[in-house]
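We emphasize that the prediction below concerns an isolated chain of 572 residues; any contacts that depend on oligomerization or on bound cofactors are therefore not represented. The input was used exactly as deposited, without trimming of termini.
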Amino acid sequence: MADPLSDEIATDALLRTAVPPSRVAPLTPEESEAQRLGTRSPALDLARGWFMPAQSMTYPDTPEANRAYAAALAQAHAAGGGKVPPMPGSQMFSEGQGTIIDLLQDVGPKGLAAMKILGPAAKAIGGAALHGDPLSLGLIGGGLHPAWISQRLPVAAAAVEDPLAEQLSIDVAAMKATPKAKGQQKGLFEKTVNTTRDYPNMAGSRANSTEQHAANFLNHVSNNLKWLYNQVPQQIRDRSKLWYEGANRMAQGAAKHFDIPLQSAAGVYAALSPRKEWFMNVSLGDRLMYMWKNHQNTPWSEAMTLKAIGTPEAPGIYADQEFAAQMQNIAGKTYSQLQDPIEKAMWMRIYDEATHDPSFLVITPEGDRLGASLRKDQQPKSIVWAGRDAMAKAIQVLESNGDRAAISNLMGEKHKVRNFFMNILDPHSPTLDVTIDTHAIAAALLRPLGLGNKEVKLGLGAGPGSDITGARGAYGLYAEAYRRTAKELGISPRELQSIVWEAVRGLYPDVFKTEANQNAINAMWQSQSQGVTADAIRQQILNYAGGIKPPEWHGTPPGGLDPAGWYATLPQ
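Result of the prediction step, given as a token string:
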């Protein structure tokens, strides 16, 4: 019998058949806990030893390299007990376009055994395998958290995808797969891409086809992100990339302290996140979980009446007539006597504002809580509660007791909230979740954008969309650009988003986002049509904005109140 590894022609066929397709089994609870907490094990340390320190490299397109990897893959499949899924896009590697990161992207939860084989093989064909820690890249462990949710939520009766049975990603492919609305000539991809033609950033794009303009847009965004990434000093990058690991640590602390599932804590933070800066977001989540756990039977007080109804001279927060019927049902009752989630949300806001200090703390990327977040006059900032609908969703998340289907529905149809939930729940998820918020879009376009800008609205899911696929707006374009750029930089998408999120807030603080400054920077981008290069414009922007201001936590070493210590300081 001929040796299938003896000639190059057979290599691709072997790569396609050596590992039969298999669905990756979820991690066991013990494996999930170890992965999320970074628990060391002999096997993990062994894998780290093989892959670190590592460098980004291209898979060599040579017969020797192909044979070496094909043999290693077949052995890895056997060593992993059939749990190592097939290599994605084997043709790409036969053409020499892939990287070792791609080769390992789908290694499953039993992949540590496979790593023992693939590690030496990778070194044998050209050097170390990865740029970055395999754990931080989500490549070791590889399985989905048991409470995972999809990035898209199809809601139409005609939907053919099940967001609980399969991981539905939001990207360009999902946009292209979205069917055209009845009577429409263009689908989501075409409509969204063509909308970007009017952006000041694209003044230099002369593409005729939708596909070519999409490629130009993605390339422009990627170059902006790489430029912004490179403006951040290494010592800040090393910490700012940790935002979701810190968020996960805080969610772990909340789950333990309040005796709730991790996914419930993550869901509370995510539900309360729209239109909220992270420091305030954390405080609102902490307050809501604290009150839910400790004050369901707390009696109504005169202070609560004053806060809710107020006086003729100083009306309360729910003094308007539109709240009269609900206040009639809420006043005088404990939280536990209420049934409606909206009324429960109102009760919690009233109790909090009548009882607690409104200030909130600065958070470090590692998840430590520092001193109060301050205004320009050095006085503490105050929380502003999320809307009643968002609070009601957070309350229902807590009441769900971690039910995955309930949480998936409560996270809603907006891709940002769903990705944010997953980034908090499991920063190392292999699903490459990426949170595209206002700052992420501002970083992508390198413009001082706010929630009112049309680019942000479209990027967050307003405009064209589909109930059949759950794909909405331009989110898929930005997610695609972040994933491609992160791969090029050798980091995970959520790390890239964390780094540029911090950078763009330093470049464009809220006080900078005036109409005059927006118009000035738009004019800079439009000068591409006169031949000014994008690189020159980026430098003009940096000079005009006065550089990138350091984050509030910069200069403070990791440490501070850990989650348990923070909750212990709250008033009873």
